[in-house]
Amino acid sequence: MSVSFYLNLGLEMALIYVVSTISFDVVHYLLHRFAKSKYRFLQRLGDLHETHHRWFGPNLRHVDELAMPNLMHHRIPEYLNQVAVTGAFLLVANPLGVALVAVVHTVALVFVLCWRGVDMNHQKTVRLKHPRGHFFVTPSYHYLHHVHNDSHMGSFVQVFDWIMGSCVHLKGQRVAMTGASGAYGSAMKNLLERAGAIVTPLKYGVDYDYADYSRVHDVLRNADILFLAHGSKVEDAMAANCDSFVALIELFRSLTQERLVPPQVWAMGSEIECHPTFGVPELAAYAQSKRAYARYARNYNRAEDILYRHIVTSAFTSRMGRGLMSAKAAAWLSLWLIKRGFRYVPVSYTGVALLNFGLFVAGDRIEAIARLGRSAPARDTTEIVAA
Ligand SMILES: [Zn+2]
Ligand SMILES: [Zn+2]
Known about the structure:
Elements: H1 3-35, H2 40-55, H3 67-88, H4 95-114, H5 139-147, H6 159-164, E1 174-178, H7 183-194, E2 198-202, H8 217-221, E3 225-228, H9 237-255, E4 264-268, H10 281-302, E5 307-313, E6 316-317, E7 325-326, H11 327-339, E8 344-347, H12 352-372, H13 382-386
Parallel strand pairs: 1-2, 1-3, 3-4, 4-5, 5-8, 6-7
Helix pairs in contact: 1-2, 1-3, 1-4, 2-3, 3-4, 7-11, 9-10, 10-12
Bound molecules: zinc ion (2 copies).
One zinc ion binds near residues 56, 122 and 146.
């Protein structure tokens, strides 16, 4: 047998495996819908899967008495679903590949039965880390489904959640939001509230100022998401666009350290992190402040105690100036991408936000290389976070 035969077989098996798991994701989604149906028959079907959630509840602890019902009502039907869809590939695929995928599903089931259902996606947990990666389902991704049953439906890959926009849970989430009266902020506030979130605006001069953040403690202590959408192009640009962002994020982190599910921070970046100011003097202070904040944001992006999302938009029309996109369009697209799991959120018609992604994930290394070429002593960007 040639190398290409094994290559084709491997690719075919990967495809069959992924499709068979996504087929269960569809059934999984329907079972959750059925559980809320007014029809008793559908309720009973949905209740089979509810056993899984009763066994491993939103507190991420097991109810040992439900270990066997979980296997009978959830894990074995999931296996049968996956094997039936795998078997259907006999019509179009190599029977050897189909058989091998069925064996993989069967071996996985045997292990789960031996572990009484406690596989790596269902370990008792005290504090979650936020999921990394954008394709495969990791334990921390699946845990979020147990905390928020209407999102994070994927079992092996996140594709179903990309399609449904269920990579993030918004219903009932408490959002503390700065800049909520601005063009982008008010559009985003409407969208979040339509999705079921509860938005509390934090107003500069009323709830906080650059010298005093004590009045936002209560709101931040109870918030699930801190959304920083304020900014200034002229007055106190560094204080508005960098220092206050960092102060609010650090305060939020310190107030939410005991959470089972670490909170999220969504913050507005800018394409000016990447492109020049084109000699426009009014843009210089703005650019300096946004680039200074981007250095902090790179560290937040790697943090495990918060899920950080960096929203980088092209210019949109607001009080700060005119753009080729409305603030409503920018907000809609931001949320569309966030619902599909984007942590770096490029809302761009110029493409600069896409270029900036490289700088965002590897900026520290790029700056270090640039410093090597200069004689000036290096300044470690991690110092900035510790400051
Ligand atoms: Zn589960
Ligand atoms: Zn479920």
